[in-house]
Amino acid sequence: EQGRVRVERIEGTFNYSRLNNRGVELSRGTLIALLNNDVEVINENWLSELVSRVAQSEVAMVGARLWYPNGTIQHAGVILGAGGTAGHAHVGLRRFQPGYFARAHLAQNLSAVTAACALVRRDAYVQVGGFDENLAVTFNDVDFCLRLREAGYRIVWTPYAELIHYES
Known about the structure:
Blueprint: H1 16-26, E1 31-35, E2 39-41, H2 46-54, E3 59-67, E4 73-75, E5 78-80, E6 86-88, E7 108-110, E8 117-121, H3 122-127, H4 140-150, E9 154-165
Parallel strand pairs: 3-9
Antiparallel strand pairs: 1-8, 2-9, 3-4, 3-8, 5-6, 7-9
């Protein structure tokens, strides 16, 4: 621990859900930033944007717009049923392409967002029991969002918080 940052090593096989649950357990804030180690911030107000959205009492989680390094969309929210189970909206669109009904440029309620970069309220996280550790690598964020929605919360995606996701 150094100042306000603490590095915690968790032994065993990779389990994204367990890592996040342990991080929340060790943290003290009312808002939890879920942030992969392979993202790069590209707009300075990204965190303020996420906070402003999750500050609404009915919103439990808000996700960011993520870009591939080549300048195309990697994540603009999750659509249930896409790709068989769930998939990211607007994948491959370039920066100024609007997408279906211009939704690639509009903040909106969705079924789910990726946890690669999202902000979630601690009380909601705890209320639904965090991430399901049986879902070690994939669909854990989708399951988590669906449980938040089942508890009566909204999930929001915003294009005004932007990061590059290297998916490494």
